[in-house]
UniProtKB/TrEMBL annotation:
Protein name: Alpha-ketoglutarate-dependent dioxygenase AlkB-like domain-containing protein
InterPro entries: AlkB-like (IPR027450), AlkB-like_sf (IPR037151)
Domain called Alpha-ketoglutarate-dependent dioxygenase AlkB-like: residue spans: 48-142
Organism: Pseudomonas neustonica
Superkingdom assignment: Bacteria
Length: 143
């Protein structure tokens, strides 16, 4: 099972990242022991509780590598409010928000460099998770 130092980030089921100590119940559900079936939480929205359990250590290590290239940041919404969770991105596109709106970009606005490459373990996990709930052929471009 993964260990979480005080500075470790944790992967959230939404594929966003946040900084700080993980809140054990809410943020570790992705790493909890698997449930036998996906849980529908809305139209075309599923919870795969424990789906990443076996890969927890690798995923957290990869997040640390991504953070070295694209730091976590509390983005500011178009309305001027700082988001409560700090985020980072990897892949072809990264999600950002600022006074101009919400969008995906090919470059990190803090570094003006392309977002870090998506680790193969992230890509494989996303493809497997999508297939598990009926989205075969999913090709993730951003996490």
């Amino acid at each position: 099972m993964a260990t979480f130092p005080a500075t470790a980030g944790a992967w959230r089921a939404s594929a966003s990242c946040y900084v700080g100590r993980p809140r054990l119940q809410s943020s570790l559900d992705l790493f909890a022991p698997p449930t036998p079936e996906p849980i529908a939480v809305g139209p075309d929205a599923w919870l795969l509780k424990g789906f990443a359990h076996a890969q927890a250590d690798d995923l957290l290590a990869q997040i640390g590598k991504i953070e070295q290239q694209a730091a976590f940041r509390h983005q500011v919404t178009p309305g001027g409010h700082a988001m409560s969770s700090a985020q980072c991105s990897c892949g072809t596109y990264g999600w950002i928000t600022d006074k101009h709106g919400y969008r995906y970009t090919t470059e990190d606005p803090l570094t003006d460099k392309p977002w870090p490459a998506m680790p193969s373990s992230f890509r494989e996990l996303a493809v497997r998770a999508a297939a598990e709930v009926g989205f075969k052929g999913f090709d993730p471009q951003s996490l």
